[in-house]
Design goal:
Number of strands: 8
Structural class: alpha/beta
Number of helices: 13
Radius of gyration: 18 Å
Largest sheet: 8 strands, mixed
Shape: globular
Strand order of the largest sheet: 2-1-3-4-6-5-8-7
Order of helices and strands: HHEHEHEHHEHEHEHHEHHEH
Length: 274
């Protein structure tokens, strides 16, 4: 199955990838490809958009119509593509810094509009590509090159942020829970409206090393031992969830989708249908 996915959905001439040994991003890129394969989508109907950062290298490896944009602007470019060609499945592959720091404004407004994009956030809790600076998702107190004594910033809960801004589907997966993460990405692609799946990755090179988390194996075991399914989390007290990672479908609702509402404006104005 893995070799078939590579042959079908990857640009083999660009492999092997440049991610560090033990990085979880390769698993998550495979999860995106597997979700597309499971849904039997026509590759010509899929566009992969990325910004800048470790995660955003995925667009160069995936054999679809892809666009590798500027830092923080992936969702803005994706919005333009979806507005021009609403029939396309537009999937944004982005990182925690790319999506919620420099790109945070685009994230909240795409969610507010409920434009039909699937945003898959590879969250490794740090800026890996540029040298290990702390990001908006680095846990408070953890170390980074720009926080040698520990970050004092509170960290974002990305799905909750997106839901508060108006996203109609949010979920969280992990690199360890691959089967579940694939299903969540499938659900997000099928959902009509703004969908966000936060995928917790592992970064042994910068985040793990600076915070004494061990290597990739130890970091994956931490996900295994500390992740709690969303359904079970609802039955636990706050103190029982302290230090745990809740994964699964977190929110889902229906609301008018932006490109469909925009088409109504075109029709009211007497414009031609697209």
């Amino acid at each position: 199955m893995a070799s078939r996915l590579i042959e079908t959905y990857m640009r083999q001439e660009h492999l092997p990838h440049i991610w560090c040994g033990g990085c979880g991003h390769g698993i998550l890129m495979r999860d995106v490809a597997q979700a597309i394969d499971n849904l039997k989508l026509n590759p010509k109907d899929v566009v992969i958009v990325s910004g800048i950062g470790c995660s955003s290298r995925a667009a160069g490896y995936m054999n679809f119509d892809t666009i590798h944009t500027t830092h923080g602007r992936a969702i803005a470019f994706a919005t333009g593509i979806k507005m021009a060609k609403p029939r396309l499945k537009v999937i944004v592959v982005t990182g925690d810094g790319d999506a919620t720091a420099i790109g945070g404004n685009h994230l909240i407004h795409a969610a507010r509009r409920n434009i039909d994009l699937t945003v898959v956030v590879f969250n490794n809790s740090i800026y890996g590509m540029t040298g290990g600076q702390f990001s908006p998702t680095t846990p408070t107190g953890d170390m980074a090159t720009t926080a040698p004594y520990g970050s004092i910033d509170p960290n974002f809960d990305i799905p909750r942020l997106a839901e508060a801004a108006g996203a109609t589907y949010t979920a969280r997966g992990t690199a360890y829970h691959a089967a579940q993460t694939i299903r969540l990405i499938e659900n997000a692609i099928l959902h009509e409206g703004f969908s966000l799946v936060e995928c917790i990755s592992v970064c042994p090179t910068y985040y793990g090393r600076k915070n004494h988390k061990g290597g990739a194996v130890e970091m994956m075991k931490w996900q295994r031992d500390n992740a709690v399914p969303a359904a079970k989390a609802k039955t636990l007290r706050p103190e029982e969830l302290a230090g745990k990672l809740v994964y699964g479908e977190l929110s889902c609702c229906e609301r008018p989708e932006y490109t469909q509402e925009y088409q109504k404006i075109i029709e009211k104005a007497g414009g031609a249908e697209r």
